């Protein structure tokens, strides 16, 4: 039988927060549009750290670090990840577009692109917007986006948890954008 001993933290050779800040990131910004759950926010920070996301932008009612509930799921990733806060998600979108980002709302809409068919330019810069747990991405934000992307789903439910959606989307963008 093959050995399957779990690796300890030291054996994983993780980089320090200082080193993380210096390494190249994938050209992806994650925008949280009025996400109310601080556990979801913390999970997005942790996933962003894992896949070297460039930045997280928190908008509207989304809580910001330092926060004990965010820390509970981020486990320190709120210290390594670059983040900003905007009172208005639309202002964040306008800022990103003015800096050359292609902005996608992760939302089920008419003419949305299926994530499995989305092809990214390795030299492009992207932002994805994840919305409120019940109401999704605000319509005015959807309208301001360059497009919408949805995750195909085959069960009885029409949506996924914000942190699960973030993990799927970030992983897919990482696979396409990482060197």
TrEMBL record:
Residues 28-170 form the tRNA/rRNA methyltransferase SpoU type domain. Pfam families: SpoU_methylase (PF00588). One of its GO terms (biological process) is RNA processing. GO terms for cellular component: cytosol. CDD domains: SpoU-like. Keywords: Methyltransferase, Transferase. SUPFAM superfamilies: alpha/beta knot. Coiled coil: none annotated. Its EC number is 2.1.1.185. The keyword Methyltransferase applies. It is an enzyme of class 2 (transferase). One of its GO terms (molecular function) is RNA methyltransferase activity. This is 23S rRNA (Guanosine-2'-O-)-methyltransferase RlmB. It comes from Petrimonas mucosa. The lineage of its organism: Bacteria, Pseudomonadati, Bacteroidota, Bacteroidia, Bacteroidales. The gene is rlmB.
